[in-house]
Each structure stands twice: as C-alpha cells, then as structure tokens.
Design goal:
InterPro entries: Homeodomain-like_sf, HTH_TetR
GO molecular function: DNA binding
Structural class: mainly alpha
CATH topology: Tetracycline Repressor, domain 2
Keywords: DNA-binding, Transcription, Transcription regulation
Pfam family, one: TetR_N
Protein name: TetR family transcriptional regulator
Number of domains: 1
Radius of gyration: 19 Å
Oligomer: single chain
CATH superfamily: Tetracycline Repressor, domain 2
C-alpha cells in the first residue's frame, strides 16, 4: 500500500480550516499556531513556512471566509435565479450554524480596531461580498445595505446563542417575548 504525502497546497487548505476554528475561538493574539499544527499533524515551523507569519495566516483565514460566503451566494443564486435572496439568507444562516464564521468575523472586527491591516482586510471582505451580492441579485445600494444589516444581525444573534431556525424576525420576536416575561418592574 502506497502512502501519499499531502502537497503544500493541501496542507495550506487544512491549516486554514483549522486556523479558522482556532482564531474563531481564541483570536489573533491569544491563539497558538501550535494548536493548528497539532490538529493537522505538522510542526509549528511548517505552518509558519506556509504563511510567513501568524498575522498573514489570520488574513488568509479571512480570505477563505470571504471565499466560502461568496461561493455559498453563487450556489444559492444558481438554485433560485429569479429571487436568490431567500436561498442566500438560508444558506448564510446554515454556514454560521457551526460558529466558526461568526467567531472568526467577530475576532477580526475586534482586532481591526487596533490593526489597520486587519481593518483593511475586513473592509475588503465586506466589499467583495457586497460586489458578489449585487452581481447575483441586481440589488441597489438600499437592498445591499439591508442585506448587510440582516447579515450582521444574524451574526450577532448566532454569537449570543439565539435560535435562528425560524429566521431573524422569529428570533427577534422570541427575544422580545423573553424580555417581556423576564422583566421586573423597577421600584424607585
């Protein structure tokens, strides 16, 4: 039986998948490249050779996140070309369900506050997703802004553990119902 070695390209893809999970949970500053190396069965120096630096590795993970979202939107639009929005929304909620994309994006946004390279990449990710969405839906700025706002809402709700099975509006109604039943009157 012949043993096949992974190519650098395959290892890079494996490292990015593992890196997305590690960065989603621990962020750029507290994550360990050793965690990624252990997960994919290589040495820590090998991971650094693949990307050059931890920072470049983080940016590569953001690129992969964008690629996944854009690919998801393309597939959704292909299945419902007349009105791709519902399929795009459903696919996005499904993509977020594992928590990796949500965690990675929130970590990236937190890092972007103090790291201009990450901030620039985050802006590029948003721009790329908006460009893809506009191309697939013929949406104008108003619809794109609403879609971006809806996506940000889904990310936030998913991050705090709100059930999104019924969609964003059902989740909002659920939160409002929880708030009204758990609120106690303030006494002055």
């Amino acid at each position: 039986m012949e043993t096949r070695r992974s190519t650098a390209e395959q290892r890079r893809a494996e490292a990015i998948a593992a890196g997305m999970r590690v960065f989603a949970d621990h962020g750029l500053t507290t994550s360990s490249i050793q965690q990624v190396a252990n997960e994919i069965g290589v040495s820590q120096p090998y991971v650094f050779r693949l990307f050059g630096s931890k920072h470049a590795f983080f940016l590569a993970c953001l690129d992969e996140m964008e690629r996944q979202i854009r690919e998801l939107f393309r597939r959704a639009a292909a299945t419902s070309p007349a009105d791709p929005w519902p399929a795009m929304r459903a696919g996005f909620r499904e993509l977020l369900a594992g928590g990796v994309i949500t965690g990675l994006w929130l970590q990236a946004c937190a890092t972007a506050r103090r790291d201009e390279a990450v901030a620039a990449r985050c802006r590029s990710v948003i721009s790329g997703i908006l460009e893809e969405t506009a191309r697939l839906t013929d949406a104008g700025s108003d619809d794109l802004a609403r879609g971006l706002a809806d996506g940000a809402l889904v990310v936030m709700l998913q991050a705090v553990g709100v059930d999104l099975a019924g969609g964003s509006l059902a989740a909002i109604d659920s939160l409002r119902a929880d708030s009204s039943t758990s609120a106690s009157p303030h006494h002055g």
